[in-house]
Design a protein that fits this description.
The chain is of the alpha+beta class and 136 residues long. The protein has a single domain, classed as Peptide Deformylase. Helix content is 23%, strand content 39%. It has a 5-stranded antiparallel β-sheet. The radius of gyration is 14 Å and the shape is globular. It starts with 8 loop residues before the first helix and ends in a 5-residue tail after the last helix.
Length: 136
């Protein structure tokens, strides 16, 4: 189900809780909402659709990937950049890392550990910030 995008910064500033198998509908809704907004959006976190669960969805070159309970475990090559967000107006400055390594559960709740770089790494970091209640 496609959900509306949360704009309430008080809600967005709260940390998300770990997701469980009972939250699979949140994962599906997040992927549906990402697909519906893909013209102007490359990633979403569950709190952006009004659910405080640690789930993100990323558009990886046309493939929509969900990450359940993602954690960045390594990072390197810090840089300054500017980002926008569907939940906020305008563009804001932030720091990101060119290379990251993330652990997460996939849609079947199997543990994954993967390395990302460049644009995809930046998107993941933005969504991880959302999970931690950090707004750019």
């Amino acid at each position: 189900m496609v959900r509306s995008i949360m704009k309430d910064t008080f809600f967005l500033n709260q940390k998300s809780e770990l997701a469980t198998k009972d939250d699979i509908q949140v994962v599906e809704d997040l992927l549906d909402t990402l697909k519906a907004n893909e013209a102007g959006c490359v990633g979403l976190a569950a709190n952006m659709i009004g659910v405080k669960k640690r789930v993100i969805a990323i558009n990886m070159k046309g493939t929509h990937v969900a990450m359940i309970n993602p954690v960045m475990i390594n990072k390197s090559e810090e840089y300054d950049t500017e980002e926008g967000c569907l939940s906020l107006e305008g563009v804001r400055k932030t720091k990101r890392y060119n290379n990251i390594e993330v652990t997460y559960l996939d849609n079947d709740f199997n543990k994954q550990r993967k390395k990302y770089s460049g644009w995809i790494a930046q998107i993941i970091q933005h969504e991880l910030d959302h999970c931690d209640g950090i707004i750019i």
